[in-house]
């Protein structure tokens, strides 16, 4: 479990420090008038009333990372969420870093494709994580995040996060931590491939060259005999590498893959740690 000190270090490393310079440069929002903003918020309230699976929503001021408006969060958590920091404390500790890695991949994608991704109300970043509710138990929630407003220099000033409750989380009911970008334009579905690539760049740094080579062999259907021949390893050495791979996979995706080959096949299917044919 992540200690309070550990959480603060993670928050500083992954949220506060990387975004500080960007947030200091933000100007006032320009793409929604006061009337248009209020009308948008009213539609949110109406939608939540009609579709109770939307448990709550939060509008965040990106400069301060504090909640400007919210609805339903007190019902879920027993008190209002006042900031991004408070929201992150509700994520199951094992899922916090996986969530932040996917979040970082999205922001890195914005740098590569600002004209595509940095558009208000256009792309929804979706991820499924367990949140601790007022009962102390964890429930699965879909988190949908999107840009709401920009300043005159096309910098993000306001974001919206909506939360849809699913079933109760259990260590016997795990699913790999995955994220995606939803766009209304079918031509931009390729952005999910780009998102996977950005995520892969982070993951590649966490694996040794030998581990990546082994995953590539598994992903390309090599059996144990072929792997041993290609790597000039003993069975004992292969077993050690498999153990290391499964440990890292568990930490990164919070999921018990059957074996290292299963993990490699999962990565290949989702274009994570993309492997060349061998």
Structural class call reads alpha+beta
Give the class-level CATH name of the largest domain: Alpha Beta
3D shape: globular
Number of strands: 6
Count of alpha and pi helical runs: 11
N-to-C order of helices and strands: HHEEHHHHEEEEHHHHH
Q: Low-confidence stretches at least 5 residues in length (pLDDT < 50)? A: none
Percent of sequence in beta strands? 15-25%
Radius of gyration: 21 Å
Quickly describe the structure.
The protein has 278 residues and is α+β, with helices and mostly antiparallel strands. It contains eleven helices and six strands.
What does this structure look like?
- A six-stranded antiparallel beta sheet has the order 2-1-5-4-3-6, with helices on both faces.
- The chain has helices at 4-24, 34-50, 73-77, 84-88, 93-112, 114-117, 191-204, 209-219, 224-231, 235-253, 260-269, and strands spanning 54-61, 66-71, 123-132, 138-150, 156-168, 179-183.
- The protein is built from eleven helices and six strands.
- A hairpin with a 5-residue loop joins β3 (123-132) and β4.
- The chain folds into two domains: 4-198, 2-Layer Sandwich (Beta-Lactamase); 206-269.
- The chain has 278 residues and is an alpha+beta fold.
